[in-house]
């Protein structure tokens, strides 16, 4: 079953932030936050805080499980991809400055790697290595101790990547297409139903993969057959995407209206 934006709101699956920043429940505790500025990368830490890279504001916002919102970091040029390591380290890509920062949990920042080419989405492979969708060089990189190394090349302006439990990969390309790489090296293009795949790509613990259609209004699930199915519609330029810690929902951030929606997976 797919959920429209109207259905998400009508079923009361949202929490909106009030003027004072406190959450107001409207039924089910799935969150809806408004007033985020061109949101891009998203991630949860072990305590359940949601971190959002707000490209338009040059900041990282942190949302507590009870809905409280605070600025975690600001003054950042073009923050895009965001990924949080198991030890709590927060990695953020600068699309504008071609680098990646790393933050400690208390907000201390330092430059992690430089010399990239419009880095977009960040994620971790199954070995815990940081992966970078390096848009301008049309490749996926891993960040090693001695610098970034090529992992997948020959892509079409990649902006997001995940590694699946079988050792394969799924890549979203903003230039067009969603590339599925099987463990045996085969490549399958699964993006025929997308207008423009965005950087929002999310992987559940059991291996389901979801990708936003930034050029459209949908979130779609990538199926093992190489096809896809629509699971949510009516979103205004969806871009950020993350699985909630309890694995029961996706949170999707929209660039068009600066809102974060909850898409319940238990209903799909």
From TrEMBL:
PANTHER family linked: LACTONASE DRP35, LIPOPROTEIN-RELATED
Domain of life: Bacteria
Name recorded for this polypeptide: NHL repeat-containing protein
Residues forming coiled coils: none
Organism field: Pseudodonghicola flavimaris
Signal peptide, first to last residue: 1-25
InterPro entries found in the cross-reference section: 6-blade_b-propeller_TolB-like, SMP-30/CGR1_Lactonase
Keywords: Signal
């Amino acid at each position: 079953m797919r959920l429209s934006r109207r259905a998400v709101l009508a079923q009361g699956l949202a929490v909106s932030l009030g003027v004072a920043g406190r959450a107001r429940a409207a039924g089910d505790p799935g969150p809806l936050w408004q007033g985020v500025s061109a949101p891009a990368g998203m991630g949860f830490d072990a305590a359940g805080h949601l971190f959002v890279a707000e490209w338009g504001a040059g900041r990282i916002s942190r949302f507590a499980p009870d809905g409280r919102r605070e600025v975690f970091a600001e003054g950042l040029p073009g923050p895009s991809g965001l990924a949080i390591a198991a030890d709590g380290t927060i990695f953020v890509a600068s699309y504008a400055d071609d680098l990646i920062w790393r933050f400690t949990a208390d907000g201390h920042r330092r430059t992690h790697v430089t010399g990239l080419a419009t880095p977009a989405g960040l994620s971790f492979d199954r070995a815990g290595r940081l992966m970078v969708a390096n848009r301008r060089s049309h490749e996926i990189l891993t960040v090693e101790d001695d610098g970034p190394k090529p992992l997948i090349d020959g892509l079409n302006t990649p902006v997001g990547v995940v590694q699946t439990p079988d050792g394969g990969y799924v890549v979203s390309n903003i230039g067009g297409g969603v590339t599925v790489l099987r463990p045996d090296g085969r490549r399958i293009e699964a993006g025929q139903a997308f207008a423009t795949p965005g950087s929002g790509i999310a992987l559940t613990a059991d291996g389901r993969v979801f990708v936003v259609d930034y050029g459209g209004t949908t979130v779609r699930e990538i199926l093992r057959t190489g096809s896809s199915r629509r699971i949510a519609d009516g979103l205004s330029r969806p871009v950020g995407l993350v699985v909630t810690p309890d694995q029961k929902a996706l949170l999707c951030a929209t660039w068009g209206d600066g809102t974060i929606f909850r898409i319940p997976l238990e209903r799909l």
